[in-house]
Amino acid sequence: MDLLWAIIDLLLLPSLVVILGLITAIVFEAFRRRCNNHTLNEANQFFEDPNSLKQVQFPSIYDPAEKYISLIIPAFNEEHRLPAYLDEIMNYFQKRVAKEQTFSYEVLIVDDGSSDGTNKVAFEFIRKYSIDKVRVILLGRNHGKGEAIRKGMLHSRGELLLMLDADGATKITDLEKLEHQIRLVAEKELHLGDAVAHDSSSRISDVPVAAFGSRAHLEENALATRKWYRNFLMKGFHIVVLLTAGPGIRDTQCGFKMFTRAAARNLFTNVRLKRWCFDVEIVHLCKRLGIPMLEISVNWSEIPGSKVTIRSIIHMVWELGLMSVGYRTGMWNIHI
């Protein structure tokens, strides 16, 4: 049955993009009214502190940075995979704090309407490390990975903002690769040279730069181990992405991406796609906004429990068609 569905998807992929684009054009006005409200309008929302029972008001991406780095982790029914990865993250950050006096961080877990104990796991880490270090946003119902990350980005305090998946497929230490490359680009932009002190990173946050973790270097091995119809399906998706967003980033779907605060502010106040293809929209927005994009190889491991299904693949096609029509017709405006 999986093979049959894969073949059907491959045959229908191009026509679905066209059909869905036409449908989108017809129903777009109603959709636009619902999804265009992306400005920050949550001044009365608060983080919950389970230790003091006090409420901490949401910060805004428009506020000055208060931390060096923010990690945004979207979590949907991750009760079992999240604890081990959070332990790895917190241990890494504790070591960096011990080595670097100016280093500061926060971890934002965005519970995307989980029905298991994901929020209980997250609140346990707040109790252990404090609400200054770990924070939880409860979305109430499932909105999609893209929307969960958008919410986290808009309420982060970091100069650098890193989104990463809750499954721990990428080692947290790989953030240093992205961090290093962003700093090189930003320092060059600011004409700071090689003798920049670490505390000057607050200026780096003002330079829009995006770094994309990539698994493209692992593609040859992946092709050899996957079933043939999955490879066909992936190649078909890559072709549609290329037609939609254009060249530039080979692996748009790796869930390990870092942005300076300025880049995150410009991108995540404009992102409209709420689920799987928001990554492709980010690439498109970077091109439209002139934000430099870096693609950096990271270590990656296959983790059991993938949530990608035939249904999600079909939804990806819908989102790509929606994005193509929205931007090509000018119905989706970009705000700076």
Automatic annotation (TrEMBL):
<dbReference type="GO" id="GO:0004581">
    <property type="term" value="F:dolichyl-phosphate beta-glucosyltransferase activity"/>
</dbReference>
<dbReference type="Pfam" id="PF00535">
    <property type="entry name" value="Glycos_transf_2"/>
</dbReference>
<keyword id="KW-1133">Transmembrane helix</keyword>
<dbReference type="InterPro" id="IPR029044">
    <property type="entry name" value="Nucleotide-diphossugar_trans"/>
</dbReference>
<comment type="pathway">
    <text>Protein modification; protein glycosylation.</text>
</comment>
<keyword id="KW-0256">Endoplasmic reticulum</keyword>
<dbReference type="GO" id="GO:0005789">
    <property type="term" value="C:endoplasmic reticulum membrane"/>
</dbReference>
<comment type="similarity">
    <text>Belongs to the glycosyltransferase 2 family.</text>
</comment>
<dbReference type="InterPro" id="IPR001173">
    <property type="entry name" value="Glyco_trans_2-like"/>
</dbReference>
<protein>
    <recommendedName>
        <fullName>dolichyl-phosphate beta-glucosyltransferase</fullName>
        <ecNumber>2.4.1.117</ecNumber>
    </recommendedName>
</protein>
<feature type="domain" description="Glycosyltransferase 2-like">
    <location>
        <begin position="70"/>
        <end position="178"/>
    </location>
</feature>
<keyword id="KW-0808">Transferase</keyword>
<keyword id="KW-0812">Transmembrane</keyword>
<dbReference type="GO" id="GO:0006487">
    <property type="term" value="P:protein N-linked glycosylation"/>
</dbReference>
<keyword id="KW-0735">Signal-anchor</keyword>
<keyword id="KW-0472">Membrane</keyword>
<keyword id="KW-0328">Glycosyltransferase</keyword>
<feature type="transmembrane region" description="Helical">
    <location>
        <begin position="6"/>
        <end position="28"/>
    </location>
</feature>
<dbReference type="InterPro" id="IPR035518">
    <property type="entry name" value="DPG_synthase"/>
</dbReference>
